[in-house]
Amino acid sequence: MLTVHAAPLVLPVGAAPVAGGAVAVDGGRIAAIGPYERVRDAHPTARVRQWPGVLTPGLRQWDCVALLTRLYHPDPREADELGEQPLTGAEFARLAGRMDEARRAGSVRRGLQRMLSHGTTHVAGPFDDHAVRTAVARSGLTAVAGAPGGLPGSPDLDPLARGGGLPGSVHAPLTVGGRADLAVFDVPDEAALVAAGAGTCVATVLGGRLVHRRR
């Protein structure tokens, strides 16, 4: 099904921003990028999704392995005991000693969902851990090569923290014919996105599929 994703500002990366822009998606590929009216008129039968803020390429998460193996992502049913935020450091170490495989696999899946909620569409490996490798393969996220041994410092769910800005945080620019990996953030422009971070994500599109939408 053909879908037009429209936003007040489209940031293709590597090309000029498009105010009042849109991206037409046909299956898993980008069919058009340009001003909303032009894209809509060229695809009159397409479903239209109107988003706030800025629409960008999907982001690349360099810290995927660390985020899934050095943090515990609580189940909402554990909120009273563990809170809602990922546990790390000493808290993670105390919990890890009494964690069975099913509980650990659940944490990995929830960690990947958190990444999707930050506009992530690509994750860096290598994925030597079986639970992580399986969950990534099932998620639909695209695996890319990462730095051997990972990157120094604490892992961060926000890909922009590692990328140093939008161009360094995307895997590829938006191009006609390219894979439809998109992210939408409820901010007015690129500077505001970098300042506020990827936690402002309201939607993530993975290979043309809407896989995250903030309620």
Radius of gyration: 18 Å
Strand content: 25-35%
Which word captures the global form? elongated
Overall tally of domains: 2
Largest sheet descriptor: 8 strands, mixed
Computed structural class: alpha/beta
Distance between the termini: 23 Å
Q: Give the low-pLDDT segments.
A: none
Mean pLDDT reading: 91
Strand tally = 11
Number of continuous helical runs: 8
Offer a few descriptive terms.
alpha/beta, 215 residues, Urease, subunit C, domain 1, 8 helices, eight-stranded mixed beta sheet, 27% strand, elongated, three-stranded parallel beta sheet
Task: Outline the structure in words.
Helices cover 29% and strands 27% of the residues. With 215 residues, it is α/β, with parallel strands linked by helices. It folds into two domains: 2-58 and 170-213, Urease, subunit C, domain 1; 60-162, no CATH class. A hairpin with a 2-residue loop joins strand 10 and strand 11. The two termini are 23 Å apart. The mean pLDDT is 91.
Strand and helix map with partners:
Layout: E1 2-10, E2 18-26, E3 29-35, H1 36-42, E4 47-50, E5 54-57, E6 59-61, H2 64-69, H3 79-82, H4 89-96, H5 101-116, E7 120-124, H6 130-139, E8 142-144, H7 159-163, E9 182-185, H8 190-196, E10 201-206, E11 209-213
Parallel strand pairs: 1-4, 1-5, 6-7, 7-8
Antiparallel strand pairs: 1-2, 2-3, 5-9, 9-10, 10-11
Helix pairs in contact: 5-6
Brief summary of the model shown:
The chain is of the alpha/beta class and 215 residues long. It is built from eight helices and eleven strands.
